[in-house]
Design a protein that fits this description.
mainly alpha; single chain
Length: 137
């Protein structure tokens, strides 16, 4: 039917949705809520995603991808804090290496949203975050 009408099937599926690059940029940068609120990197993006996922083109898949990454990142991050604290309390060695992992994880969650916000602003709406474990579809 699409061939006869000379329209793309993708256009039919996204009917009523609009392209909003600025919302996608804000969505990527909403991850920075983790700097002020524990688990803010999940809470604020979930609110933004649920609010507009059926209104903005690409937000449904980008949001699921971002939230999957942030959930996995948070589990690894808080496990790292726990291990670091345990090693310090028990006076075991290697805590300096765990601290470096902590800094690396922190920097990754600052750099990736900025890079992906810039890419979204340029029109790239692919799943950008590494898809380690897919919890949200």
């Amino acid at each position: 039917m699409c061939d006869v009408l000379e329209i793309n099937a993708e256009d039919l599926l996204d009917y009523g949705k609009k392209e909003d690059k600025s919302y996608l940029v804000i969505f990527h940068l909403s991850v920075f809520a983790f700097l002020a609120i524990p688990l803010g990197n999940i809470i604020l993006p979930v609110i933004l995603w649920l609010n507009k996922k059926n209104e903005v083109i690409g937000l449904k898949s980008i949001g699921a991808n971002l939230l999957n990454f942030q959930i996995v990142w948070s589990v690894i991050f808080f496990a790292n804090i726990f291990v670091f604290t345990f090693l310090k309390i028990m006076h075991y060695g290697y805590s300096q290496y765990i601290f470096l992992v902590f800094i690396g994880l922190y920097l990754i969650n600052i750099a990736l949203p900025i890079v992906f916000a810039v890419k979204s602003n340029k029109g790239k709406t692919d799943d950008l975050y590494p898809n380690i474990i897919r919890l949200i579809k």
